[in-house]
UniProtKB/TrEMBL annotation:
Organism: Campylobacter ureolyticus ACS-301-V-Sch3b
ACT domain residues: 328-403
Cofactor(s) needed: pyridoxal 5'-phosphate
NCBIfam families: ilvA_1Cterm
Protein name: Threonine dehydratase
GO MF annotation list: L-serine ammonia-lyase activity; pyridoxal phosphate binding; threonine deaminase activity
Length: 403
């Protein structure tokens, strides 16, 4: 267990540099799930994630000799930015090793904070191995993203702020990758209130810590694949696993579909932008992964908001399709003047808004003199899509619904 005094000291250390983020009630989540749900918005940190807490606390505790030589870290992005901005604050060199598939937003954000970035490896663990070698070769101090007591204590300040705001919380729900956040948060919460329930949430595509929790020993994964890149860790840490086994009451998993649904819900209904790792707690709530008494006070940590714009666009588009707010149909027309106008008038009568049209007269799958029109439409739900299909049928169009 991370000592509460170290967490309190970390809070003093980071105050004035690290933001105290909002811990606000979500009326929609509370109503939908019969609880009092509060969201800890670490996505609003100056680096867009909680990682700055632990990074700054560790770097501030380095010796002058260590600071003079500089620091190095391995990270999928959020820890990188936390180390970079903290090193800049102390005026020291920072080198960050990131997996080659790290989203551009996180790479450019890290460079903008003054760090040197090296892209190496297919995942965090390969980047981590290279960073350790580089640290030894260049005499740099390694700032571990989770296996360090100062880092864990810094992350634990998140729980201090939550319990200061809502002292009678019944549950804290937090994401787990390497385990630094949950180690600090769970240790802090259990020492303040031993009766509080801690729910750890992992991604199904990165199951090492979940499997280790259930086996009560380290069980590493062969590979990882999840949209929650911030918790995409292949190997379980024996150090953080020990804290998790001591303090976590329940460990659940969510898949990418559930994570994407939570991201879209937070964006559309709460006007909150989070990344995959930041959404897993809400995903667990929305997917009924854990049980709780009615009207329980549940605090969920939104750990970060640094989502790649292209990934966000994919999630939005897929979400619109799944909720029947976007559809595409392929219609075969006689290729003559006015044919397309007749089709669009039919769709107008169904109050469907056209957002894209593709016109193909060269397909080898159609007769000479015909054309295939693929039209993407904005719709208002399944009933509206059924109405569009009925209008097309009643007007004699040969069509196929694509999605």
């Amino acid at each position: 267990m991370v000592d509460l005094n170290k967490i309190i000291q970390a809070k003093r250390t980071i105050s004035g540099f690290v933001d105290e983020t909002p811990f606000a009630v979500s009326n929609k989540l509370s109503k939908n799930y019969n609880a009092n749900v509060y969201l800890k918005e670490e996505n609003l940190q100056k680096t867009g994630a909680y990682k700055i807490r632990g990074a700054y606390n560790m770097i501030s505790n380095l010796s002058q000799e260590e600071k003079a030589k500089g620091v190095i870290a391995a990270s999928a992005g959020n820890h990188a930015q936390g180390v970079a901005i903290s090193a800049r604050e102390f005026g020291i060199r920072a080198v960050i090793v990131m997996p080659e598939a790290t989203p551009l937003l996180k790479v450019s954000g890290t460079k903008a904070l003054g760090a040197e970035v090296i892209l190496k490896g297919d995942n965090f663990d390969e980047a981590y191995e290279y960073a350790n070698e580089y640290a030894k070769e260049h005499s740099l101090t390694f700032v571990h993203p989770f296996d360090n007591v100062f880092v864990q204590a810094g992350q634990g300040t998140t729980a201090l702020e939550m319990l200061d705001a809502v002292p009678d919380l019944d549950y804290i729900v937090a994401p787990v990758g390497g385990g630094g956040l949950i180690s600090g948060v769970a240790s802090c919460a259990k020492q303040i209130n031993p009766n509080i329930k801690i729910i750890a949430v992992g991604a199904k595509g990165a199951p090492a810590m979940f499997n280790s929790f259930n086996a009560k020993k380290v069980v590493n994964s062969k590979s990882v694949k999840t949209i929650a890149d911030g918790i995409s860790v292949r190997d379980a840490s024996p150090i953080t696993l020990r804290h998790i086994l001591e303090n976590v009451d329940e460990f659940v998993q969510v898949d990418d579909e559930e994570i994407a649904n939570a991201i879209l819900f937070l964006l559309e209904s709460q006007k909150i932008v989070v990344e995959g790792a930041g959404a897993v707690g809400v995903a667990a709530l929305m997917s009924s992964k854990f049980k709780y008494p009615k009207n329980s006070k549940i605090g969920i940590i939104l750990s970060g908001g640094n989502i790649d714009v292209q990934m966000l666009n994919i999630i939005i588009e897929k979400g619109l399709i799944k909720s029947h707010r976007k559809m595409a149909v392929s219609v075969t027309l006689v290729d003559k003047p006015g044919a397309l106008m007749g089709l669009t008038l039919a769709l107008k009568s169904a109050n469907a808004n056209i957002v894209k049209i593709d016109y193909d007269r060269f397909s080898t799958q159609i007769d000479y003199g015909d054309a295939v029109i693929t039209i993407t439409l904005e719709t208002k739900g399944k009933a509206h899509q059924d109405e569009v299909c009925e209008v097309l049928n009643s007007n004699g169009y040969i069509f196929k619904k694509i999605f």
